[in-house]
Amino acid sequence: MKIAGYDIGPQHPPFVIAEVAQSHEGSLGQAMAFIDVAAGCGVQAVKFQTHIASEESTVHEPWRVPFSQQDASRYDYWRRMEFTLEQWALLKQHAERHGLVFLSSPFSVRACEWLASLGMQAWKIASGEVHNPEILQWVGRTGQPVLMSGGLSDMPRLLEVCAELERGGSQVALLHCTSRYPTPPEEVGMNRFQALMSAAFPRPVGLSDHSASTVPGVVAAYLGASLIEVHLTLHERMFGPDVPASLTPDGLKRLVEEARFAWSMRTHPVDERTRLEDLGYNPGIFGRSLVTVRPLPVGHRLTPEDIAYKKPGGGLGYDAIQKLQGRSLIRSLEKDHKLGWEDVDII
Length: 347
Known about the structure:
This protein is α/β, with parallel strands linked by helices. The protein has 2 domains: 9-267, TIM Barrel, CATH 3.20.20.70; 283-343, Antifreeze-like/N-acetylneuraminic acid synthase C-terminal domain (Type Iii Antifreeze Protein Isoform Hplc 12, Alpha-Beta Complex). The protein is built from 13 helices and 13 strands. The strands form 3 sheets. Strands 3, 4, 5, 6, 7, 8, 9, 10 and 11 form a 9-stranded parallel beta sheet that branches. A two-stranded antiparallel sheet has the order 1-2. A two-stranded antiparallel ribbon has the order 12-13. Helix 1 (28-41) packs parallel to helix 4 (85-97), helix 1 (28-41) packs parallel to helix 10 (249-267) and helix 9 (215-223) runs parallel beside helix 10. The longest helix is centred in the C-terminal third of the chain and has 19 residues, at 249-267. The radius of gyration is 32 Å and the shape is elongated.
């Protein structure tokens, strides 16, 4: 899979996506600030969610978590989160000026149409929309790459949708996701991530993480994740439902660096046969030899108390100590003399 010039696959460094979602609170300026910060963290893409209240919801939509006191209903919240098509164009341009891939999850056909008109280069299907045939069919007809989160689907359903999209010509990457905000460590489910990698092979598999920790992303990178998506917050005390599940800028920058480190470890196995050669191992420097612990006269018969095992190497090894014991010196020796067979008589 290729997205905007990036090769996506386990043999390539993880494609890291900074998820802004609704954390911009409906402010275009705030959304642009998120792009600025994401670019400084070293990610490859920044992702939003394109909500058009009248196209996806009604006033009867209930709150899942009533977090906002300024919005009378969930519908009002979606309206406050809206940007116009022109504003979305500005955000995409701003992201691309920073060298970032612009992505946004559509939540209605109108949102799909808007994003397509902007020339978005890949689609991200949110966990809840995996059960929305209207959006899936629309996106599937584009034949473009699709990233799909599976937090609200079991694996058979996820693979079924994946096959449907592939029949339309799309390449699909699947993202392990728990849809728990935030996700405690005991629910991250890296065993399910590994199972998805096995079941989805050879498709790229990634992690959409909501733990507010860098650990799952780094572990996933070592296990073979092709993509890592995490929520970004400008500060841990910001307002918004996703903030407890988000990384701060420092955390996101650290994740990018550590995930690449983990990928490099995985893709560069060490050959044991050449390891010591590459290290420049020198027995004369790192090894030890049998030496005298004090001056000894000619004719002295060696005992264990006469001998020590010290650096540097290059002399007799420790396994020679038993053969030296009881032998007589054929010449006097100074303290710390490196013992050799030429120093003792032949038995």
